[in-house]
Sequence to fold (984 residues):
Amino acid sequence: MNGKNKTNYLSYKWFNDLICKSNVAERSQIRGCLIFKPYGLDIWNQIKNKLNYLLIKTGHENYYFPLLIPLTSLKKEYNHIQGFSQECAIVTHRRLKVTNKAILIDRHSKLKHELIIRPTSEAIIWNSFKKWINSYRDLPILLNQWSNIIRWEMRPRLLLRNSEFILQEGHTVHSSKQEALSHSIKMLNLYKYFIENIISIPVIKGKKTPTEQFAGAKTTYCLESVLLDGKALQMATAHFLGQNFAQSFDVKYLNQKGIYERPWGTSWGISTRLIGALVFTHSDEYGLILPPQIAPIQIVIISIITKREDNKIMDKLVNKIGVFLKTNHLRFVYDNRKQYTPGWKFNEYDLKGVPVRITIGKKELQQGLIEIFRRDKRKKTHIKIINLHKTLINLLNNIQTQMFLKALGLKNQYTQTIDDYNQLKHKLKSKGGLIYSHWDGSQESEKKIKEDTSASIICIPSTTIKSKTSHLGHCIYSHKLSKQRVIFAKCY
Amino acid sequence: MNGKNKTNYLSYKWFNDLICKSNVAERSQIRGCLIFKPYGLDIWNQIKNKLNYLLIKTGHENYYFPLLIPLTSLKKEYNHIQGFSQECAIVTHRRLKVTNKAILIDRHSKLKHELIIRPTSEAIIWNSFKKWINSYRDLPILLNQWSNIIRWEMRPRLLLRNSEFILQEGHTVHSSKQEALSHSIKMLNLYKYFIENIISIPVIKGKKTPTEQFAGAKTTYCLESVLLDGKALQMATAHFLGQNFAQSFDVKYLNQKGIYERPWGTSWGISTRLIGALVFTHSDEYGLILPPQIAPIQIVIISIITKREDNKIMDKLVNKIGVFLKTNHLRFVYDNRKQYTPGWKFNEYDLKGVPVRITIGKKELQQGLIEIFRRDKRKKTHIKIINLHKTLINLLNNIQTQMFLKALGLKNQYTQTIDDYNQLKHKLKSKGGLIYSHWDGSQESEKKIKEDTSASIICIPSTTIKSKTSHLGHCIYSHKLSKQRVIFAKCY
Fold:
């Protein structure tokens, strides 16, 4: 990106090291499962709390359903179980046999009905919907859950594709098709708002091809983005389930005319993968860069005063600044640890991606100035202490916007329109990125292209790029008629 | 308690119904696992956030470790695995085989190393401690985790003894025995403070007998309480692990003299069981009664105005009150739904246990008065609106204290000293409660008494009751010498 020559810079390996070095997460002894470290959990809690607020505000209520789903329940929706069948953690026994010689599974404790650790919770939640829904008065149900789930990954990728991850999963039931459909799109738009404005990552809105859609859905809407290494990442999905689960779980309600009808469902989710996304979009060679909205620490104050007698003046000043920061609900830290040098601290907060650093030294104190450093552009300025109030709030907003614009630049740089199959193959082998090409809509071509290039159709975008207005065209692979361009990309 | 003659009143069945009726939780299709409903989760989040604040303040940091623990890791601490061997959920396979005819476990997907869903996380966390600890500079480590765990219960009890529950588990490592021991006791005292002051339940501090202690611990300290039905409930535990896990997981550190030493460990926890405890301690025939400190809604405002033209005056007044409530960080709801009568609402908030209800009618408005109803004592008073500020804050504090005192009365009422074995057996069959009796310290007597009475030694209390100062005595069963009284009780 900026011509750095370090090996692996901006690669998955670099991303991986950065995640560990910055105390976000690390690998565990179990393949595909990670350990969230304190800073990673702090970032997640910022995301969680802000999104949760929006979900509650839009009428959703939080529930917590069991971790384990009986296989008999999961079986009910055939497409659903087929889709998840290759990545299930299956609980089959419930006791160990401990003897002097060995510790083994107690064969007598075999379960009559096997249990699956939830890969998603439709199958257990629709079982409750059946009990809860009788009349149109019970609808809509708008429910949300924060849960840990397991999807056994063959090729796990730290934070981007883990076997265990934390999921926000919404599940709703509606009396009409139109209402359910609107709700799935409403939630997709809410995610778009959230990811673009809070995490500062621009996303492409679209829907999945039938091959790529959620197992059990009628339509899967999605938000996609591109990472620093040119690979695509699915950021959020919202599924219109039609009456599939209502049918499979035999859910019906008495409508206002006294006739039984099947209700309509949606489900939608985001996960801790978003932490991976923000690290792999916004970071640079110095470390993370966190958008102010979700940075656990938005501002760090570091003193570079050396004389002990100046410390008191410093503490007094910081106290004063602190009052203002607190009143404005800004998250800050005053790092006055004596065992570390200012330089060490600068590196530390650079690595952690703290958006703004305030440095105060003797010279500054005497002149009524403080030094402000913005992490995203790595620029220092001196401002008058009396102007701090206005400057800080404007600066944080500006960083948030500039980070979005920089990521938008990245996305645009990685976006291309290609009409020649060899060129597509070449591009996917070299730079990667998001490639808009025509597709005939057949699973056959989709499969063949994937075999040739390892790229998937990450989505059928809602709107194609403005400059390429022609909707009709010919499939890049089969040359058959194509209704619109879709996006090909290698993805995590 | 108050002479009500309803069948089952204050029984486990009554408690069970109340949990469901008040929208706290309900049973799921999986035996021993429950569904947390929105109100239950709201209560839990109050508990979680307040306790988390105290844990962070005392220097602990939050981590999240994987859900699954390799059996090979769990095996390392022999006593630990032996203790949990009868209640493990064991994952043995990772794929299903979906054919036209049936959906079965794919036998080829059998795991080489079986995984256990965490019943507690020592075995996975100590594996990381081994990697993280090298020198005395790495110590102490003070970490905390909020996690869902599975302990397969043979006789599950809704919210009191579930197979899946949410756990707060602290894990620490120290360089000296004294420091680890002090830390486990410090955390026990923190729990005592929290449970008595925030949840308003008095607890007895003590330690477990070797039979009852945590599998893998040297000493298990505990807090115990008694429920409305006279059964005891373990509220919190703190374990001094000695060097057991350090030994089993081969954790060592270089001390200041450059010599390798084994560190010392602690672990301690509370769980969603606390919600069960507070419901089964504070409720009455009208529903829950929540201590103000953890009530999701502390104050509900209900208008009993009938004329539409008065509504505006009402809204204006509520707005004014609202500003004051918000400024004081009080959690309140103004219920102005038109489709429900005031009477219906009164019952609803009684059931939910909202500590304070403010009712405003026309008469009150004209006289500048409002009616205040306190849920715990079910008493109404009229106060002048201008005195609302002071009154409300005092009232909430008073309710918190009075609830504690009432629970203390319950505990005292259920506490007895008995020296005759037949009397002990009789008492445990009839009223139950906490019975202070002498015990010779042998596992044999402990086991025999349990067989005869189904009661356990719930703890060896730190301090015996003042009025019974004589420490020495004779075991109620064997008549052998006893060093002090212990507490016998039937428990959940």
User: Anything to note?
Assistant: The first strand of chain A starts at residue 25 and ends at 27. Chain A has three domains: 12-65+124-282, 292-402, 415-489. The radius of gyration of chain A is 26 Å.
